[in-house]
Structure formats: structure tokens, C-alpha cells
Amino acid sequence: MKDEGTAGGPEASRPIAEEITDPRQVRLLAHPLRQRIAEVMRRGPVSSTTLARALGQSTGATSYHLRQLAKHGFVEEVPELGRGRERWWRVKPADRRLPRYSEQTPPMRAAVEELTRLEFANELEQLERFQRAREDLGPWADALLFSFSTLTLPLERVRPFFEDYIALLYRYKADDGDPPPDARTLVVRLLAFPEITEEEDGT
After folding, report:
1. Structural domain tally of the chain?
2. What residues contact residue 152 under an 8 Å CB cut-off, 6+ apart?
3. 127-148: per-residue pLDDT in tens?
């Protein structure tokens, strides 16, 4: 599960990991429009008006989705930005995790599979946008990081490997509230799964 932590120095202060156990929360994140909302909100706080303008939606629709995300703890209000009845929202920092597959109920498994499908479809679209714009990005055109490798590990070392990866992310996180002028957001994902042999595949 991707984290949304913030930094407080050379190494980001790391929130306590929290597990999402309600399938309704996962389905909330898997909504296609909310996927687009999350992408916009990673760039900074929004109001229902600014979000509607960015997404080509009505303010009624964006206001509803922001309230739903706030209800489940995914976004929070930024009172200091509000003027009159206008409310501003930002992503609530958290290290959110999904239960292990063996601990998921059937409804949770279905919700996680849909979320995973939408997440990767969205990220593939972002990669394609980067590739189309690459010639105009100057030195940032070289900032595509790609690695393919395998690890042979006993099961008890898989989780420590993942935690080391998360710790590395927090080590490099810049302060989202005050990034240097030359900073850009990098889309970073880790995908690791057991290799399946032909005998195990059964197709």
C-alpha cells in the first residue's frame, strides 16, 4: 500500500502503520474519480472549486467525494486556508497497509483486486504521459528509474525486505510543505510477488 507520509528533516518522520480492515474504505479508494482526486491532491491542498476545475467536474460532485474521503480519514480540512464557507482539504499523512491475503475476507479480496487493477491502470497512464512529454522536460527526461531483479528469500524475510523499502522511502522524502524550487514529484511503486512455475500455474 502506498504511504502518504511527510517529512520533518533529513529523514521523514514516519507515521505509525495502520491497517485498513473495512472493505468499504478500499472500495472508496478504488472509485475511478477518487483515483483522479488523489492524483490532484498529491500536488497540494484543494477546495471543491479548484478540484472541480482541475477535473472538469461539478463542485457538488467534488464536494461530496471530499466529504466521503474525510469521513474515512483519508483527507483532512486545512482551516487556515478557508475563507467564508470555502473549505480546503489536503491528504492526511499516514502509512496505510492492507491485510495479508490470508487474513482478508472475500469482500475485502474483491475490493483489493479492483483497487490494484485501477492503481496500475492509472500509473500506466501517468507513465505514458511522461513518455509523451519527455522531449520537453530537459534534464528531468533522464529521471526514469527502472530496475528488474529477483530475490530468493525464505518467507520470514519477505516482510523485513518490504519494511526496509518503506524506510528508504521515508529517508528520501522531502518536506511536502516546503520543497526546494527544483524539486519534482516522482511516482514510486514497488511490486514484488512469488514467481510461479509452469507446474504451479496449471494452465
Report:
1. 1
2. none
3. 999 999 999 999 999 999 999 9
